[in-house]
Amino acid sequence: xxxxxxxxxxxxxxxxxxxxxxxxxxxxxxxxxxxxxxxxxxxxxxxxxxxxxxxxxxxxxxxxxxxxxxxxxxxxxxxxxxxxxxxxxxxxxxxxxxxxxxxxxxxxxxxxxxxxxxxxxxxxxxxxxxxxxxxxxxxxxxxxxxxxxxxxxxxxxxxxxxxxxxxxxxxxxxxxxxxxxxxxxxxxxxxxxxxxxxxxxxxxxxxxxxxxxxxxxxxxxxxxxxxxxxxxxxxxxxxxxxxxxxxxxxxxxxxxxxxxxxxxxxxxxxxxxxxxxxxxxxxxxxxxxxxxxxxxxxxxxxxxxxxxxxxxxxxxxxxxxxxxxxxxxxxxxxxxxxxxxxxxxxxxxxxxxxxxxxxxxxxxxxxxxxxxxxxxxxxxxxxxxxxxxxxxxxxxxxxxxxxxxxxxxxxxxxxxxxxxxxxxxxxxxxxxxxxxxxxxxxxxxxxxxxxxxxxxxxxxxxxxxxxxxxxxxxxxxxxxxxxxxxxxxxxxxxxxxxxxxxxxxxxxxxxxxxxxxxxxxxxxxxxxxxxxxxxxxxxxxxxxxxxxxxxxxxxxxxxxxxxxxxxxxxxxxxxxxxxxxxxxxxxxxxxxxxxxxxxxxxxxxxxxxxxxxxxxxxxxxxxxxxxxxxxxxxxxxxxxxxxxxxxxxxxxxxxxxxxxxxxxxxxxxxxxxxxxxxxxxxxxxxxxxxxxxxxxxxxxxxxxxxxxxxxxxxxxxxxxxxxxxxxxxxxxxxxxxxxxxxxxxxxxxxxxxxxxxxxxxxxxxxxxxxxxxxxxxxxxxxxxxxxxxxxxxxxxxxxxxxxxxxxxxxxxxxxxxxxxxxxxxxxxxxxxxxxxxxxxxxxxxxxxxxxxxxxxxxxxxxxxxxxxxxxxxxxxxxxxxxxxxxxxxxxxxxxxxxxxxxxxxxxxxxxxxxxxxxxxxxxxxxxxxxxxxxxxxxxxxxxxxxxxxxxxxxxxxxxxxxxxxxxxxxxxxxxxxxxxxxxxxxxxxxxxxxxxxxxxxxxxxxxxxxxxxxxxxxxxxxxxxxxxxxxxxxxxxxxxxxxxxxxxxxxxxxxxxxxxxxxxxxxxxxxxxxxxxxxxxxxxxxxxxxxxxxxxxxxxxxxxxxxxxxxxxxxxxxxxxxxxxxxxxxxxxxxxxxxxxxxxxxxxxxxxxxxxxxxxxxxxxxxxxxxxxxxxxxxxxxxxxxxxxxxxxxxxxxxxxxxxxxxxxxxxxxxxxxxxxxxxxxxxxxxxxxxxxxxxxxxxxxxxxxxxxxxxxxxxxxxxxxxxxxxxxxxxxxxxxxxxxxxxxxxxxxxxxxxxxxxxxxxxxxxxxxxxxxxxxxxxxxxxxxxxxxxxxxxxxxxxxxxxxxxxxxxxxxxxxxxxxxxxxxxxxxxxxxxxxxxxxxxxxxxxxxxxxxxxxxxxxxxxxxxxxxxxxxxxxxxxxxxxxxxxxxxxxxxxxxxxxxxxxxxxxxxxxxxxxxxxxxxxxxxxxxxxxxxxxxxxxxxxxxxxxxxxxxxxxxxxxxxxxxxxxxxxxxxxxxxxxxxxxxxxxxxxxxxxxxxxxxxxxxxxxxxxxxxxxxxxxxxxxxxxxxxxxxxxxxxxxxxxxxxxxxxxxxxxxxxxxxxxxxxxxxxxxxxxxxxxxxxxxxxxxxxxxxxxxxxxxxxxxxxxxxxxxxxxxxxxxxxxxxxxxxxxxxxxxxxxxxxxxxxxxxxxxxxxxxxxxxxxxxxxxxxxxxxxxxxxxxxxxxxxxxxxxxxxxxxxxxxxxxxxxxxxxxxxxxxxxxxxxxxxxxxxxxxxxxxxxxxxxxxxxxxxxxxxxxxxxxxxxxxxxxxxxxxxxxxxxxxxxxxxxxxxxxxxxxxxxxxxxxxxxxxxxxxxxxxxxxxxxxxxxxxxxxxxxxxxxxxxxxx
Length: 1891
What we know:
Elements: H1 2-22, H2 29-32, H3 38-42, E1 48-50, E2 61-63, H4 64-69, E3 81-86, E4 98-100, E5 103-108, E6 113-121, E7 128-135, H5 141-149, H6 151-161, E8 165-172, H7 185-189, E9 201-208, H8 211-219, H9 233-242, H10 244-247, E10 254-261, H11 305-314, E11 317-324, H12 328-334, E12 342-346, H13 353-365, E13 367-373, E14 379-385, E15 395-397, E16 403-412, E17 415-416, E18 419-420, H14 426-429, E19 430-437, E20 444-450, E21 472-475, E22 478-481, E23 485-486, E24 492-493, E25 516-519, E26 522-525, E27 531-532, E28 538-539, E29 545-546, E30 549-550, E31 555-558, E32 561-564, E33 568-569, E34 575-576, E35 594-597, E36 600-603, H15 618-622, H16 624-637, E37 654-657, E38 667-675, E39 680-687, E40 698-702, H17 715-746, E41 755-758, E42 762-766, E43 774-782, E44 789-796, H18 806-809, E45 817-829, H19 840-857, E46 867-872, E47 883-893, H20 897-910, E48 912-913, E49 916-926, E50 930-937, E51 943-949, E52 959-971, E53 975-976, E54 980-986, E55 992-996, E56 1000-1004, E57 1009-1018, E58 1024-1032, E59 1045-1050, E60 1056-1062, ...
């Protein structure tokens, strides 16, 4: 019985499913949502209802009307509402702005949309406030004079504009500080004759209606002045906006601000460029004195542009920019960022300012900007015109004095973020939004709410209901089964086996379509998110698509068909229900001449060319009058060119009327022409046809002409006859020639039609002469060019290689992702603005192109988004040479090449890529081996160029060939003639190489001439030439020097010549500030001829110094070769630059086996070359083949050692038999201790061991003949000449009193009666660590009486690696006894050496102690006592540095989250070349200001550096945890887990974070003023201008990205994720944490509704699996951007289960391994050497590396290099461009595959920019583990300048970039330069810091 009942129940259920499937065609958005509960159903959206009837056999969630038709007895549904609560009608008699209605309440269902009518009134002559803000710099003096003269006219103009007006006046110049203002006392008093002292901003005349007083005060004004060109107008604008009372703005008036200048503007972060120090960020407060003077110009920075936009909108102020031509382009871009602003071009003397004001006021009054403010996140608001048109920026036209009507459309969103709207908070779903014009005070307030009701029936379920067989609850008529039961009535146990036949779809054989399991006769699909249906037969990803998108992204796929949202219809949801897309320009539907179907107009009369909205086609309309002119003439008056019989050929008949109705809606165009026969003017209109079936327009002609009075009309016919006769003769000639030419071409004897083919057979190219990576190869067409032909072509690289060639044996990986350059010709003309990458037009077009191409290329599997989009034109492209060509790069698998070519060809022939219009017949698609494309011959065109890529690669053969083939002619009648062309590229070898000896030279201005040598390296002797020329940098031609250019010829054997350049003395007009700039120019080599090439330095930079520069002495060659038979070794040494005086340098041998020689080398005045001469026979030991080194050192005061300070001397066997020369061969056994001369050989087997922090023990094998030994030892890096010597009697020694943790070098020799023997090779050893010394002196910056910032320096004697610091502060009395508990802060990150302490007791003295710790232990305290009340308050001249630890002195023991962060931001604009520095130590931070020697290299102060082997960072920590005890509060600031220091900078919508580190090395140097050594900070120039980054702050309420992400492993499967609260101008409401496996899988979500919680614990992770985490913050304005991070918990895994870690196994956090930092060394302006470190975790044997190179900003090809060796970690890359940033990526290949990439960016710059530019080179390292583009964190670390052992002054800068909380990118820049001092003091200063 039980079995029968079970089968019956299952049968009924299957029957119900069949019924449901039968209604699949009636599915709608309610049923498609598959709501499981009643509440989910009614929350779907409009029209959805739920049937809770107990007996109901249909879908319970459906449309309300469907449930009513199915006889549902009771339904649950909700309805929205709308109510106007306040509606005071507009009174046009009132002379101020009004809106109606004023208040309403509206509820919306999810997805529902409602509109409300809104009226706006602006009076025609309403109250007006006009404030004029004028630039008072000296260049505006004539403008001021004119304004004074026009005072009365100005007042009259304002009176004409309004009956109720006020007028005011303000003036501005710039900040009164250097370098903006000349600070010399005389210039401060009177910068120009008859001028006022400089000032920033003054409110001269408060807004007043007394025009007489206005004119009188204006007459008293005088001009002022400043230095730099940009002015400080932004300070003035901000004060004008925020000082409402002082300026006098009225509440209900229109506020106009006229801004007049001829200069550009300073903006935020330009305040960093002041010599007094970096300024605070602008506080946006009013700082005007009673007399109108701005007081904070030198206290705070300029405001940013977004700040000005926000404040002007807030205070309803409309700016009018009156700008002269000099700076008009800057303000042209600027005014676009304001909702309403006007821009006018001033004449040089401002004489047209009144006309600008009048025109601007009319424009402002005729338009309005309406926006919705403070809307809830779940509500979308749009403002439309009365006709329904939408303006993206809310700008509309209105008529002042009339009521404007608008429509406000509100729509409830269905999702907020990634969740359904009903899961959002109440604050996100409900709120009051304000709809108002931006210049109005009144607004329409709408209380909007998204309804998310729940069903009452869910609150009263029937437990274990009988209908559910006692196995479930009856909820809202539906059974919710208990665990283990299923079925509609819970009558089927999941453990019961049933027949799977009930799960097989009719006509199929597999149960559940193979996509699910059959349980209780019902299919349970494997993946319900993809498969559905009673038999799992429907795939949710297989519905119809539109534009490549499933259901057009306007619906969902349900039961095999698209279920559209309520506003869309169609099989693929491609048709909008609304007719908005069919509205014409007048607001009607299809111009009343068609019907709107599927969002498109189907026009009634298809015979005429019409627009998509059935209006007259604009292009056709342009020629409509002209095309009908002749027929109108002949039919109306029998005149014109068609009079006579030709008039019968006219396709239409005119209608003569008395008057024309030009305003009739049927009129397309009104036309007027002059009749040549009688000189009268006739008029007619072209109308739509009266009958829709007519194919021609209806033409109405006015009967009466307009004729001029009679005169000499008789001459007109004669002149016209003569002109007509001449025209006919010319026409006949042209017709004859063209006819004959066409006919001759068609004759069988003269040719058989058209032919196309390549012009040439073969091209020979030399790679060194190539200027681009492509060749424009002409293709020609013969025959009559009467129509269009399109030719497809292809090119193949390396066709010279046979099939057995080794390179052809390597089969590329088809799944390898490569780049495909793609070129298309757009259907638009090219404009000059497209050549500027940063222009607005370029950006808009780039977005349009990339969006459409991405949509099309989605069809290619594995294709990524296009990038590097650029625009250009192409010459010799026929009639299309002015069209825009777009070049872009598509990244896709290698195997996709045929599909990409096919798809591109298809889209091009169709003329569009989605909505992007392209010209058919032109495209190019290329990869790294082949290319394909098409070119177009238009009518009349006989030749076009094929742009052939040359595939230039380093691995190319010495001679390679490319084959270019014409494939076919898909369009046209031409035949292919010459179907191919061969291109040969040759890598020729040079016969000579020209180069400058150095990349830079320095000459004294007093020398009068700079003799610049050009060196020639001879490979094959002969004659050759090279061209040279100079070019200005900071030095100017005919002011600093006389430019030269010409050809330098070299005869046989000539290797060096000089070019003299005359240097000029400084003129009297050169100001003091101008003289501060280093004067430089460059000389370039070019055009080498007769087999020559350019070498390492084709460009050199010449610096003009004001005092004589030292000579440069160096070896002439890097290597010398001699043989054992040579009597002498002569090694040449050359001297360059300043050869007038004598010079001396010392030389010595290194690692020579037979001698250890040192001697001076003296140069006489004018002497340029001398030889070091060594006599090898003067030493008794035998001459054997060897290699030793010669070194130059210790130059005289007027000389320095150049780049080649060492040279290698190779001594080879002179006889070739390997025998020793000159002396008999001797045994060299270990037992023989004496050389033939009696000297002892060096001891052997020397071992050095550190026995303590200050001791090293040495042991060596004894020598039998030795009577004693000498041990020479010195600090690594110091010269050996400074070594100390220890005498011992035994073969061991103990070195004592050494420095702890210091590298030492040692040598040992034996002694006998003849003296000292030979010294051994150098042995190195490092002493052990010792406790550190006390930290450097404490520095205090008093912020307020209760807040101080304490910082300290690293200990002078670190004696190891500093691991942490401890800070203690204690309140004390006058006797220094504690009066309260001590508080302790533990800083585990040694880089953090600054602390901000808040809430100290006022007027209380504190004792502060700081000590350091290394691996050995704690060092002594550094102590200081200070009472803040006795100190002057010195607000920091920079903002509080973000991420400084901020501790609360009053916090109790429960104070866990003690750490807060400053939200002040220090920015550097992207176009600035200044360094952006985020923190300082006491070295650079003095009395609250920056040390100028730190900011501006070249300060004259002497600096001393004590350098240890540690790396110390001047920065701040970011901890998150704290530990406390009862006696004192101890706070731990951890440096683990990604704790870093941040500096925020808004760029491209993200945050840039920087950290400044001062790195030290294990050596000590002392620099003095005379050394010429300067601190330098080298920063690259970032692309883009100030306008590139504005939009990032235009939505102030949305949170920014969480500033960092920190991971802490709690176990092998558990992780704690922490983040820092983001910057947000409103309150943060909560957070969302998303995470998933990096290789895919389910996305899991954690909601954090408590804004104070900034960490979560994630459990049940998989060990040894990489996860990607995303964290974002939420405010009332919406979700902010995500912060991403990737992390892996590594742990030992139980072998029994791949997912279970072994009990007690250790676990670590890691990120994927990558090669070590990339290091670049510039070898020449076009060649660099790249090296890297091996991966720390190779996880297998390294097989090699793959290196890729591409230009950072696009252009050029992606170059790839294969390094097939484990040991090879370097690569030389040539053919680079100067001043062009390149991106390099290095990827290691192991036995397990390819690892992640390490990325680096490098620019080979053409100049150094400093006095230490001799022999300079730069290297940059950068690393990147994951490229997660949501946010960038950057840490910049600068090392101290130091002198290396080779005499080079070096300084490094490292930049570490964070993305998503993991350190992912590292950039290191190293600058090298020659130290220009005579000596470098070599002493160790132990007391570096003062107490």
